[in-house]
What does this fold into?
Amino acid sequence: MSHTEESAKRPDFEGLVEQYYQPLYQFAFSLAQSESDACDLTQQTFYIWATKGHQLRDASKVKSWLFTTLHREFLESRRRQKRFPHYELSQVDDELPAISPARVNQLDSAQLLVALGQIDAVYHAPVALFYLEDYAYKEIAEILSIPMGTVKSRISRGIAQLQQAIAGSPPAPQPKRDSHE
It folds into this structure.
């Protein structure tokens, strides 16, 4: 069978969305009990179809493939929520580090970069992407291929280390050259 014959048998993306969006959304809503989560699950299912649907050999099984994929995504999202619970900022406000505005105004970018270099490597990328590149948590999670909860905790811990590095740094920081440590 030629490539053109094979792609002719495969359903087109827009047609699938038109045909299955509503039933998939209703199934997702019955599982998630949340409108936004149901939308996310449905969209994620179609995203997976767009990236992996070509692997399905029997076009008659598209519907079951979509529903199975949605169900698996739902289960995976529940596992992620248990492992990395979501907290509103107001719930963890007391855990967030605070740097006084006066101290921020005293810093220059060179000092900040030196202080950023002093934090643990695992926190460096999330903090840099968040504060220097203005990426959102979700974007950082995608870039680093880690869960959003991990991004949040790494940024929080990285900022705590950054705050310590800034608080302990002299006005003109010098790199450490003491090889005895």
Summary: The mean pLDDT is 80. The chain is about 65% helix and 0% strand. The chain has two domains: 6-83, 91-168.
